[in-house]
Amino acid sequence: xxxxxxxxxxxxxxxxxxxxxxxxxxxxxxxxxxxxxxxxxxxxxxxxxxxxxxxxxxxxxxxxxxxxxxxxxxxxxxxxxxxxxxxxxxxxxxxxxxxxxxxxxxxxxxxxxxxxxxxxxxxxxxxxxxxxxxxxxxxxxxxxxxxxxxxxxxxxxxxxxxxxxxxxxxxxxxxxxxxxxxxxxxxxxxxxxxxxxxxxxxxxxxxxxxxxxxxxxxxxxxxxxxxxxxxxxxxxxxxxxxxxxxxxxxxxxxxxxxxxxxxxxxxxxxx
Length: 271
Prior knowledge:
18% of the residues lie in helices and 40% in strands. The protein is of the alpha+beta class. Strands 1, 3, 4, 6, 11, 12, 13, 14, 15 and 17 form a ten-stranded mixed sheet that branches. A seven-stranded antiparallel sheet has the order 2-5-16-7-8-9-10, with no helix packed on it.
């Protein structure tokens, strides 16, 4: 009886050990499968390109030396008056309506620096009203600015002209204006305004190009030179400053800007 019991116990123990070994082997195999799958996932993730950050503009120049200063998604890198600027369809947008009139000018201001010599390319669309692109400008309280503006308006009376807050029109469409140290202007015709403005597509997307190098400023719309200035006026001509986009008071309007690219050049005489 005792021998029989011991044999039975030994058999039971052997079976239990065999079952435990089988269970351990199965667990080891399952763990190996999990590790292989995990490694495959990690390898796939490593092979895939990392997502481009959505909260910062591009920081590397493109093949032409331009850097994007608007990420197409939000207001990162720009300072806006609350309640006015937002992103719509990949464009910086401001709009006034009869129910929401704009009573005083405000500007969306780029916070990335104060460019001196540069080329700025901006696609814009204006429906109604008046707007503009500030450059080499000073910042003023309450999202205001003071300085040069590449102008635009719905009737195209100012579109393509170089305006400045202190002196008004610096150079009109079809003009090259040279200003000496004392403020005296010498104006030369470079085209007929009525012909040049035909480059502008009303209520549609256009491209503004602003080229500033030393005292020389050139404004282009859709690759057509609209005006030029050589500004040497003492205590008035600016050589660097902020960039801003204008929301103008007055009649209902909507303005949008996108594909904003900047190429900065070394300032003449600097290292």
